[in-house]
Amino acid sequence: MPLPAQAVASTPRRFTGSVWVLLAGVLLGLSVPPTGFYPLAWVALVPLIVRWSQSRSAWEVFCDAYGAFLAMSVVAGYWTLLHQEIPRAMIAGGLLLALPVLLALPFVAGLLVRQHTSTVAGFATLVASSLLIEHVLGQHVVPLPWIQLGHTQLESLVLIQLASLSGVSALSLWLWLVGGVAAWALRAPHYFQPVFTNRTVALLMLGLVFACPFLYGAYALERDKAGLRSVRVGLVQPAMTPQQWLYSDPADRIDHLASLSESLMAERRTSSSGDRRAHALDVLVWPELALPAYTETARTDRLYGRVSAWTQRHGVTLLTGAATQAPGAARYNSALLFGPGQAPLRSDQTSAHPAFDGARFVEPPVALSQADPDWRLAQPDHAFES
User: What is the pLDDT of residues 168-208, one digit of tens each?
Assistant: First the structure.
């Protein structure tokens, strides 16, 4: 009597060509803003994970991962090579070549664990070490957005709600889980019996993992909807070159921004009908390094006091870039938030990209009237600087 049909564990090799490695990197690169085709990241990791699960060579795994992350870096960060200063462009090129080495190491670690234990343990090692490396690099070493995979989902308002749980790492973890379960579904053996197969389980789990962030995001947005309101924002950007901005006199620069802001607020008031407050601006945004750094604390306090009084007088909140420095400490590229009736809030950029974040704090200022003869201050008396 013939035996009943048995499970046939035929697991064909998939994604065997190197083109899949490059495709994975290109998809990841295109999912990073400003391109921002974030759905591409949902499938981009699948070829890499499948090839990792099939490989027996640490060198092969390393080359696959390095090639993919190099392609991602080139697609997402080619603009770092366009710096006008050749040395900085060369540093950027070196970073584009070096960083994928660190991003590829978790694949090797995961392979070694997989070979000595199990695929699940190896994949857990791969994910955990990837999250650790991207957190250390992205938060403390080189603040490049594509280093942390979760940044690929920036354009999705629903998905980024997941970051409220544990930061951008929560989104990175979700992408790894989606890629891992999808790879499991592709690699699951074919079964004739029973009907409820490994692949069925994998597809059901993929649907669950994929849907959870969308459900949570919809819930979070609905939960917070009651406290949301429209905010009218005015962006103040002087029409000058970066060189003119960097080398301008700080007092002239602040007065010019204040003058432009007052003109914008006046235009809003005169052009609106009915309730003027309903059309007034809530927030003004000034550019990076709009406020200077002073070594004397008293001088800084006087400046901030005048800016606070100005926001109080106009009933507006001001978000501005500023160079800040505590006595005896390093200077920071900061953001300051001035609100009516409150002390300014400060957020410092604690790490900088060595290729293009070279804020110039030491060059002697040049009056804007010298940099651009056609430019004139609307308020020649320095409103904020003594």
Answer: 899 999 999 999 988 888 875 543 334 445 777 878 888 89
Residue ranges of the alpha helices (H) in the chain?
19-31, 40-54, 58-77, 86-116, 119-136, 163-166, 168-187, 198-224, 242-246, 250-271, 297-314, 368-371
* Other beta carbons within 10 Å of 298: 8
d(CA 338, CA 15): 54
How far apart CA 320 and CA 336 sit, in angstroms, is: 5
Residue 38's nearest CA partner among 128, 157, 203 is 157
Contacts of 42 (CB under 8 A, 6+ apart): 175, 178, 179, 210
> Is residue 365 within 8 Å of 249, Cβ to Cβ?
yes
List the structure tokens of 328: 């005896």
Segment 370-378 long-range contacts (CB within 8 Å, at least 24 positions apart)? 371/240, 371/243, 371/244, 371/247, 371/248, 372/240, 372/244, 375/240, 377/252, 377/255, 377/256, 377/259, 378/255, 378/256, 378/259, 378/260, 378/263
Report the mean per-residue pLDDT for the chain: 78
Q: Which amino acid is at 300?
A: T
What pTM does this model have? 0.69
Over residues 90-118, mean pLDDT: 90
Render the burial of 325-347: b for 16+ CB within 10 Å, e for the rest: beeeeeebbbbbbbbeeeebeee
Residue with structure tokens 């690169």?
A: 29
